[in-house]
Design a protein that fits this description.
mainly alpha; 15 helices; globular
Length: 419
């Protein structure tokens, strides 16, 4: 273990010593592996299965996909804060977070293998719910490791590397799902990467251990009541949650029907390849800004201006999909969206950690904040399906997405306790 990786004296102490590159790289790889497990299915595999299972089911492929992803998002909605809270209380010799990273990644891999063998919509829905349950256990622990170990003025940079790994996970998951040669093979490839990607972190880096005497007494009432973080008591946390929800909702509305948008609206010759190309373009421009944006925010000590202007840029890119409905227009929109989302990913993560109330509840509180990532996956299908089917199609859908994201950017200014 290097000097930069030295553990703080106490699991609940505010970290002051900068973490090293090895720790950041290993945690970033674990984060990317989790996103491979999520986005291989979300970008390609679930949509392809819905198309196979829809005939004779009484549902369109759009409705089936919306139903399955929506139910899975409900599971994610509860799983992330619950597993975050459980990791806060864990007194294992391997630390507070590592046991949940291991169990979540292993469970996620097995759940992806279940999806590989799905023969109907019910097995598809069950498999996706299990993926969301298990991978959220790992994700809650990975994100909580940052405020556990990283000092405040390094969190933008570390958040940037985690964001870069997230992008590579989305691109890698999409690439594995496309290149594997079939739905089943795609799931197997994503499962293998998810399980193997967390190993460098859990095997090489010691986790913080919570002393038994520091763990609060257990009660169901106290445990459940802890998930309510009053916006009156913690107004900055409330506004931060709302802005993240709105920006992620706008992004979710863009991504949900991307495959169908290319196929049915743009009439792209190979929509699967088109999704991969757009994901790669978006990923390249995001990678160009995600680390730089986080490091720049650390140097200036400011968060809000970066989040506001990145949100405005994302809204502009989304509006392009509504008014410039061509393949070149989709490529330009993907590039611009990546620039904005790169800065947002790293700096907004740092902003979230800056408004956490208590060290003892970092995992739980970040889990509550991460509901703002999962809830849009529930809301997006409920909004998108009727808009595409009855209320104006893809043009209206992307205008609604742009306005939603812009509202989130504007409301960032209501956060008072962060520069």
């Amino acid at each position: 273990m290097t000097t930069a990786d030295r553990l703080p004296a106490h699991a609940l102490a505010e970290p002051v010593e900068r973490v090293g590159r090895g720790w950041t790289s290993a945690l970033s790889l674990a984060n990317g592996a989790i996103w491979v497990g999520w986005y291989g299915p979300l970008q390609i595999l679930l949509a392809s299965q819905a198309e196979d299972f829809a005939p004779g089911s009484g549902m369109s492929k759009e409705t089936m996909l919306a139903w399955v992803t929506g139910v899975g998002a409900v599971v994610s909605l509860a799983a992330n804060p619950v597993f975050g809270a459980l990791s806060d209380r864990t007194t294992s010799r391997r630390g507070r977070r590592t046991p949940w990273i291991v169990a979540g990644a292993a469970g996620g891999a097995l759940s992806l293998l279940l999806l590989a063998g799905a023969r109907g919509v019910w097995t598809m829905a069950l498999g996706w719910c299990l993926v969301q349950l298990t991978l959220n256990a790992a994700f809650a622990a990975v994100t909580a490791a940052v405020p556990d170990r990283v000092p405040r003025l390094q969190r933008g940079s570390v958040g940037g590397w985690l964001g870069a790994a997230q992008v590579l996970g989305v691109v890698g998951g999409t690439g594995l799902a496309t290149a594997a040669g079939g739905i089943g093979a795609g799931y197997v490839a994503c499962a293998a990467f998810t399980a193997l990607g967390v190993l460098p972190y859990v095997l090489r880096h010691e986790d913080l251990r919570l002393a038994v005497e520091d763990r609060p007494p257990w009660s169901w009432r106290g445990f459940l009541r802890g998930f309510w973080l009053s916006p009156r008591t913690y107004p900055d946390l409330g506004w931060a949650w709302l802005t993240r929800f709105l920006m992620n909702l706008g992004n979710a509305l863009v991504l949900l029907y991307l495959l169908y948008y290319l196929r049915d609206r743009l009439h792209h010759d190979d929509p699967d390849e088109g999704v991969l190309i757009l994901t790669a373009v978006n990923g390249l421009t995001l990678l160009a800004t995600v680390v730089v944006g986080g490091a720049w925010s650390d140097r200036t000590g400011r968060r809000k201006p970066f989040v506001i202007w990145s949100g405005v840029l994302m809204a502009v890119a989304t509006a392009m999909l509504a008014v410039w409905q061509t393949w070149p227009g989709a490529i330009v929109a993907a590039a611009v969206l990546g620039i904005g989302f790169g800065v947002f990913t790293s700096v907004d993560f740092a902003l979230m950690t800056d408004v956490l109330p208590k060290a003892l509840d970092r995992g739980k509180d970040l889990g509550v904040i991460n509901v703002a990532n999962a809830l849009p996956q529930v809301a997006a299908p409920a909004l998108a399906a009727p808009i595409v089917t009855y209320l104006g199609g893809y043009r209206v859908l992307y205008l609604v997405a742009a306005v939603t994201g812009l509202a989130g950017a504007v409301l960032v200014g209501r956060i008072r306790g962060v520069e």
